[in-house]
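Example record

One chain of 165 residues, shown exactly as stored in the release files.
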Amino acid sequence: MANKNECKCLACGEVFSADLRNCGRQKYCGKPECQRASKTASQRRWLSKPQNRHYFRDAENAARVRRWREAHPGYWRNTTRYRRRALQETSPATSLISQENVFADSPLLQEVLSASGPLFIGLIATLSGSPLQEDIAAASRRLVQLGHDILSGGTDRGDQASTAP
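Predicted structure tokens for this chain:
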């Protein structure tokens, strides 16, 4: 004789052991695709009821949501995901190197530029006036575009700025 808690999944058709507390109501097994099918069927049943058909669409429920938002200001700012968000990544503390030691062993400009990472990031941060990654990235894009314009013999940037709408 079969166990009382064994059921046939409505999604995949396999026999599974239902939870003893829910054996009369559990119709889907625990596989992710079967759980998605269970959720879809549940939503379809809920939306098929006449009182729920326009639950999220009519003016009365839009007003209900507005009232709830007014009663709970800053609700989304209290979530863990929002609190965890940082303006920029943390970087390890580095010791400052004196300026004369950086270029002492590199007499040629080309050799200085080969250490482009920290040099260019520092230069762009100085030019943009901000150490934030977003500002450095925006300034970098502007500088790269200017470099392409200069190398391609494009028009003077000052002339473009005066003719821009």
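Notes: Residues 6-84 form one domain.
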